[in-house]
Amino acid sequence: MKTTRFIVFPVEGRRWSFTTGTFTRPPTGTGQANDPTFKELWRSISITPSADQGLSRKAELITDFVSHKMQQKWLALEKAPVGSIRQRVYSLGQWLLDRVKPSEMFLKSISKDTTKVEVVFPLSLNPRLVRRRLRCIANSGAIYHRRYMYGSIALLPFTALFAVVPLPNVPLFWNLFRAHAHWRALQGSERLLLLVSDCSNSWSRIGAPHDMNRETENASQGGSNTAGTCPWVLIPCRELENIVVSEAKTGALSNSTISIICKTYNLDSSQVMKWRDDKL
Question: In this predicted model, what pLDDT tens digit does every residue of 41-79 receive, in sequence order?
Fold first, then answer.
């Protein structure tokens, strides 16, 4: 069982910020102890069952392996000498990353293991409106990221041709990264749809497999089946209301106010500011 907390509040007029309650930066270490090898990947794939769930697990292992290797390459570019081509490639990549939509980062933060969400929002907001907006983000995110994931995958064979150039294959690297990012965001949007759904029949699909098997067994023995328990909890917060009410009605939240909120709820201020400054 994993519970994720969402912090929701207006940042400018009708524009809201949606972020998770914790933010973890990627590890910056380059130690070999946690560096998976192709041999270890092959061993993990070999012992995974071949059923449908096993195929899904194998795909996750492969994408995690590729993602880790890409992250290592990216960290190597970060340490390139100033003024070198590799350093310029890194600067270009950072410029592109800064333009990733905040909704994508929010959806990517929703793990497939999440079985319950707590939604914290200012006291003055309508709870039904808060949940409706979460469903809207999930629906639009599923459509958007599915479309662009297929687009990124379709471009991979063409960008692979740049390998003949004696320079870092930036187009291939970027397409691999974006395909994985869109896949992660798509998984998050589909999970979010289940978590905030009104349909109690969908809630039974949220629990972890071993928990659901146990609950099914209990139900067959005459026990209670809790697989359909409501997975979302709405938490109106007066403290958050007091922080945002003074500025949200008159204009955009200032950087200082956003900083206070982020320190209080352990958020990433750069992502909150993206919600405020994103004009699309």
Answer: 667 767 655 555 556 666 666 767 766 776 777 677 778
Cβ-based neighbours of 131, under 8 Å, separated by 6 or more:
119, 196, 232, 234
Q: Helix crossing, 127-159 with 170-195: angle to 10°? A: 150
Cα–Cα distance, 77 to 91 (Å, whole number) = 9
- pTM greater than 0.85: no
73 φ/ψ sector (left φ>0, alpha ψ -120 to 50, else beta): alpha
* Model pLDDT, residue 57: 64
- Show me where the domains of the chain are located: 3-277
Return the sign of the alpha-carbon dihedral for residues 167, 170, 175, 176.
positive
Q: Do the beta carbons of residue 159 and residue 175 sit within 8 Å?
A: yes
- Polymer length of the chain: 280
